[in-house]
Write a structure and sequence with these properties.
The complex is a heterodimer of chains A (315) and B (428). Helices cover 69% and strands 1% of the residues of chain A. By secondary structure, chain A is mainly α. Chain A has a single domain, classed as MetI-like fold, CATH 1.10.3720.10. In chain A, strands 1-2 form a two-stranded antiparallel ribbon. In chain A, a hairpin with a 7-residue loop joins strand 1 and strand 2. Chain A is globular. With 428 residues, chain B is of the alpha/beta class. In chain B, 47% of the residues lie in helices and 13% in strands. Chain B contains 18 helices and 12 strands. In chain B, strand 1, helix 2 and strand 2 form a beta-alpha-beta unit. In chain B, helix 9 crosses helix 17 and helix 17 packs antiparallel against helix 18. The radius of gyration of chain B is 25 Å and the shape is globular. Classes of the chains: A mainly alpha (315), B alpha/beta (428). Chains A and B meet through helix 2, strand 1 and helix 13 of A and helix 1, helix 3, helix 17 and helix 18 of B.
């Protein structure tokens, strides 16, 4: 099947004439109406007061030693230097990277898989889609409480393992330093996959079915259709999904804070939980803000470099 | 479109005004005092007693006060987890709340030394009957009183009388007696020692550190260590952990996975024999089971070290920037009276001891025994975080849970603990 070239369409000239812009008024460029200025300035102000100003303050605090009680003392880049020698920061960085790869990779793959599986309209398919999406609706703190019960030493996970004869695999999942981080990725995935699935479902719906018909006519296998039609067509959705996943993994805080608070002995500490603990439990606001700046730089860097690459490819 | 007439100049002026206001409100780190000198009006009582039972008790206290006073108090309850990080912000803000529920000891001193707390020496003039230990605890470095204690509780090794009778055991007095008791319980097939230092309640492990350190090295060394005058790599601290290692095989292997609430359930259900805990756990115990519970003093390890006990003291302090010091002092004076404290102990869980000796402590045998134990103690300590800071408590949680799971790594654990503690002291 082919698409008719637009030039051959009749009536194009008339259409063009109809949408031609009105002649500009005399006296140079159009003055935007005050209403438009208002629409731009008011949000800008709100944004400036509620986002930019606190962000700048956060950066300023990161250059000080401040415990919230004494007046802050200027410290230059002391707090940033401290990160290099801080083993907990290293562990948190490592865990965050691991989290990004595992959580990000698995939720993208799982979300796409579920979307592919549930994209065709069959009877009752909406129930399955809703079931997959349901965890997104739950509050993460409530979700965490539920998983905490499952992970208890005499909870359901261990009960299930001993029930199927794998009693030797039982662990105190959240209290064991070698399992705590992975045990927490599971509930986070459980939630994220449904969300990513919905994004991909929307993307799949937008693909022209004609492309698949053409591929079938050319004798493409199911894998070839996926590889050469579906994936390239999902590129714009991918940019959204990757940004969402990166942001979500760098701010994954609620699950870890409610399940282990970064413990046992910092083994499941993420940058976000370490930042919270430093600033709001230890009231070491200077170092806490420095950690927040580091998280911002990381998130921003990763996303911008991905987007630049994605847009270059699409050009 | 142009019927909507917003003048651009007006809009920009407004923008400038908002910007200026934002700039004037100052940066977030400003700590200077401002504010008017308004008189009268209600004073605010900021409370972290957010559990339903305690909040209700506070409400009835405030209502009872307002009924008999010309001043009025407005109760503002904040969730306990939010309260602690916000407390410095409250106290340093230009218009702070007036009165706060908090802990006596190092934490209050910390704020007092920055001039943030109101001198309540006048209230103390009406409190001549209080124990001198409580007065010392409420006095800052400059020698003035800044805290009004309302109640305290105690820690002990709790057990079920019926279980001990079944196992043929009696209360151990010394460390070796204690280890024998542990061995007997283990032989009967139960877990000797419950812990409950799982997620969110890792701090209870610090009770073991506190008591072992107090019993081996004395309360003075313990306090000095917690305030940075001693090192966690000191051989005296190593002794603490080596003693702990003798009891470690008797601990619940899941002790670092379950919360103290579950650990106290295990005790009630007879799955574990003993639990070192503060009396707060009794809030969650079914009232019928409470009669079967008893406790003994943490066993003596070195008889030459004078006994000290943990007696965390709760109470009130006030902001030095309050606009209505007369009302604040009036309320605090009232809270120090037996009448107010009776009301508090009656409406709350009933395992706390009122700070005023003339108030009637709950008459249960348990509370009387606890009160007697504290009265006999040579010194009273507060608890790890109250004798140091919450930041140091965090370093302790890390070190102690690591030790319980990996006792073989002791020396590296202590080195890490010391370096993290130094960071905390540097920031404080």
């Amino acid at each position: 099947m082919t698409v008719a070239p637009t030039e051959a369409r009749p009536g194009t000239a008339a259409l063009r004439a109809a949408v031609r812009p009105r002649r500009p008024r005399k006296g140079g460029p159009v003055r935007p109406s005050p209403l438009i200025i208002g629409f731009v300035l008011v949000p800008l102000l709100v944004e400036a007061v509620s986002v930019f100003w606190p962000a700048i303050q956060g950066f300023y605090i990161s250059l000080t030693h401040w415990n919230g009680v004494n007046p802050p003392t200027f410290a230059g880049f002391d707090n940033y230097r401290r990160m290099f020698g801080d083993p907990v920061f290293h562990k948190a960085l490592e865990n965050t990277a691991l989290w990004l790869v595992l959580f990000g990779g698995l939720s993208a793959a799982g979300g796409l898989g579920c979307a592919m599986f549930l994209q065709r309209e069959r009877r009752g398919i909406a129930i399955y889609r809703a079931a997959m999406f349901l965890p997104v609706v739950f509050s993460l703190t409530a979700t965490a409480l539920m998983w905490q019960t499952l992970y208890q030493p005499n909870g359901m996970v261990n009960g299930l393992l001993s029930g199927i004869g794998l009693g030797g695999w039982q662990h105190a999942w959240l209290a064991n330093s070698s399992t705590a981080l992975y045990a927490q990725i599971v509930p986070a995935l459980w939630r994220e996959i449904g969300y990513v699935m919905v994004l991909y479902l929307a993307g799949l719906k937008g693909i022209d079915p004609a492309l698949y018909e053409a591929a079938k006519v050319d004798g493409a296998s199911a894998w070839q259709q996926f590889r050469h039609v579906t994936l390239p067509q999902l590129r714009s959705v991918n940019a959204v999904v990757v940004s969402v996943i990166i942001i979500d993994s760098l701010r994954s805080f609620d699950v870890v804070w409610s399940l282990t608070q970064g413990g046992p002995y910092n083994s499941s500490q993420l940058l976000s939980t370490y930042m919270y603990q430093t600033a709001f439990v230890n009231t070491d606001f200077g170092y806490g803000c420095a950690l927040a700046v580091a998280i911002f730089v990381l998130a921003f860097g990763v996303i911008v470099s991905y987007l630049i690459r994605a847009f270059k490819e699409s050009d | 479109m142009s019927t909507y007439n917003v003048s651009r100049r007006g809009l920009l002026a407004g923008a400038r005004a908002i910007g200026a206001a934002a700039a004037l409100s100052g940066c977030a780190t400003a700590t200077t005092a401002g504010g008017s000198t308004q008189q009268g009006g209600a004073v605010t009582l900021q409370s972290d007693l957010s559990s339903p039972l305690a909040e209700k008790a506070m409400q009835s206290l405030v209502a009872a006060y307002s009924k008999q006073s010309k001043y009025s108090v407005k109760l503002n309850t904040v969730a306990a987890t939010t309260y602690q990080p916000l407390l410095p912000t409250y106290l340093t803000s230009a218009n702070p709340p007036d009165i706060y529920t908090w802990y006596a000891g190092n934490d209050a001193d910390h704020y007092a030394s920055r001039g943030l707390l109101l001198d309540v020496s006048d209230t103390w003039k009406t409190m001549g009957n209080y124990q001198s230990a409580l007065k010392t605890l409420s006095t800052d470095a400059a020698g003035k009183q800044i805290f009004v204690p309302t109640d305290y509780y105690w820690w002990g090794v709790f057990y079920r009388k019926s279980q001990f009778a079944k196992w043929g055991l009696s209360e151990p007095k010394t460390w070796s007696d204690f280890l024998n008791v542990c061995a007997t319980i283990k032989a009967k097939g139960a877990t000797p020692i419950g812990l409950g230092a799982g997620t969110g309640t890792a701090w209870v492990a610090a009770a073991w550190f506190d008591y072992l350190n107090i019993r081996l090295n004395g309360a003075d060394f313990h306090r000095a260590l917690l305030q940075g005058q001693q090192s966690f790599t000191d051989s005296k601290v190593v002794d603490v952990f080596n003693t702990w290692k003798q009891a470690l095989p008797y601990f619940d292997p899941n002790g670092t996975a379950v919360s103290w609430q579950e650990a106290s359930n295990q005790l009630i259900q007879g799955q574990c024999g003993m639990l070192l805990t503060g009396t707060f756990f009794a809030d969650a115990v079914p009232s019928g089971s409470l009669d079967d519970l008893d406790f003994f003093k943490f066993p003596v390890i070195d008889p030459s070290v004078p006994d000290a006990e943990e007696a965390p003291t709760d109470g009130l302090f006030a902001s030095s920037k309050t606009h209505n010091a007369a009302a604040v002092l009036d309320f605090m004076t009232w809270m120090a009276t037996p009448a107010a404290q009776n009301l508090w102990t009656q409406t709350s869980s009933g395992t706390v001891i009122p700070a005023n000796p003339q108030a009637t402590a709950p008459s249960t045998a348990l509370v009387q025994k606890g009160k007697a134990m504290l009265a006999d103690a040579a010194q009273l300590t507060q608890f790890f975080n109250r004798d140091s800071t919450d930041a140091l408590q965090n370093t302790a949680n890390t070190a102690l849970i690591d030790f319980i799971q990996n006792p073989g790594r002791l020396s590296s654990i202590l080195t890490t603990w010391q370096s993290q503690a130094e960071q905390v002291w540097k920031t404080a």
